[in-house]
Amino acid sequence: MSEREELDALLAAAGVDEAYRERMGAFGASLLEANRCFNLTGAKTPAALAPHILDALTLLPEVEGRTVDVGSGGGFPGMPLLLAGARVDFLEANAKKCGFLREQIAAFGAEATVYCGRAELLGRDPNLRERYDRAVARAVASATTVAEYLVPFLRVGGIALMPRGRAEEGEAAAIADAALVLGAEQLEDIRLEGDRRIVRLRKLRPTPERFPRRTGIPSTKPLCR
Is domain 62-220 annotated with CATH 3.30.750.24? Predict the structure, then answer.
């Protein structure tokens, strides 16, 4: 069985819609193949990659309008969302990963833009700042750090979606406080299977100009922690 066929079987068993399951399998197989040449993801097999695709698809019911995937890496969660019909742009700092994403978007005939750069810099770009209805990112850092990356990209009324695992001690209060600083409010988490959840912030007013802070500061000095 090929990697593509194995992925298709795994996604079918998980109940992924047949309408876009084939594209998910094709993307996953391309990702695994490219991953042998340079590091795109820690997942090395279809069995390891399938949960990443399924995790990305948990965001699909919450995504609407124009969405930005911040820190896309090898394409999660943005590529599964794009292939399922969402309008997604990608933001990634690594040039090789940006190149891979552009190749995949072209291969599927999708419409999306890949911005190659740091969130701290692109979050200040007037062409991107406060332009999106939704902003998503995987749990690449503390929740308040991710919030500082995402909220500047949102228009007023837009929602940041942050898939997370088990909450750390004091995290809820820190997220609520950071949201206020960034011009947002914390909504109720969406609970998923096990310890998984989606943390949500809704933007109430323009983000103060000082955010995001300089490159590296959001991760080394997280807001309200």
Answer: no
